[in-house]
Amino acid sequence: MKQVNLKVAHVPKNVAGLPANLAHVEKSLGLDSKCSVLVDDPFVKNHDAYFSSGAGFLSGVIDRFRLFLSILDVDIIHYNFGRCIFDWGHITYDDAQENFNVVVKVKRTISEIIIRILSGIDVRIFHLLGKKLCVTYQGDDARVSTKIANKRAYYPEISINPARDEINRSSIEYMSRYMTHIFYVNPDLGNYLPENSTFVPYAHISLDEWEPKYQQNKIPKILHAPSNRSIKGTEAVLKALTKLKDEGAVFELVLVEKMNREQARKHYEACDLLIDQLIIGWYGGLAVELMALGKPVICYLHQDDLSFIPKGMQNDIPIISADVFSIYDQIKLFLNMSLDERHRLGIRSRKYVEQWHNQEKIVSQLIEVYKQ
């Protein structure tokens, strides 16, 4: 059903292709929607406009103004990854160099003054102009690592980042003053966002482009794609698989790292099981893609965070939950399943994505929020 022709801009990042996909589906439903970014994702290039004229602080300021001016005529600004256009995050400097370079010190001081003046200015101006403002949080843009470490039985020390935690707290506090609605795509983020925020499942794939591949290999292919080995729990995965191999288990490990999407897709379609992350407590976009292909998934699901998602979704989740301490047992459980049991689990995975990660359903819900 076609919707009223609202103009929507998704900015300023396109993390995992989600914002651009939302824009494309919104457009198919009648909205004038586009995704404009400041940073080009090397793996996902489905955005509509890219504002980057080169390296350097001054170029970054100019690019932000160009993006800002390009969307002045829209009705709704949908920020993504919890960041506005004039947001520089955490900037670090080489203090050793600055002690011997007065010019660098002056440049740093000027940059800090400009940042202090401009930070968040787009949000304030859009608010004064009466624009409707929304924001989606996608993960590390909202998480507070020190709190996660206290809630998890295991959390890698390398991932604890107090400086980023403070940026996230400040950003959430600032954005909350102006946003008409706040969305988040991972349940655990509900612990850090205002109570009136809304959980929205991943809507980054078209089911027509991810037809199920239910064929099974005589020797099971176990796939793991560690974009970040520490946070994915890769060490525990490899340790468990080595132990199983030593015990005589028969399987093939497929590690997907530093591959383009076409190469990786071939491995996705040919595998029998995906092992996703074992630490954060929820599955990522890759798990959605593999479940759409009809593949069983092992991933850590933090039970306390499931209260943030619909009850029906909780009941339907087909994922085998495992953390770094139980991954050996859960892989062994899967390997001991009959081919029929694995096949039925794959069918459940596909149906789950059809029910809970349907792009048109999710975007239609977003549009209703836009129209309120």
TrEMBL record:
Gene3D superfamilies: Glycogen Phosphorylase B. This is Glycosyltransferase.
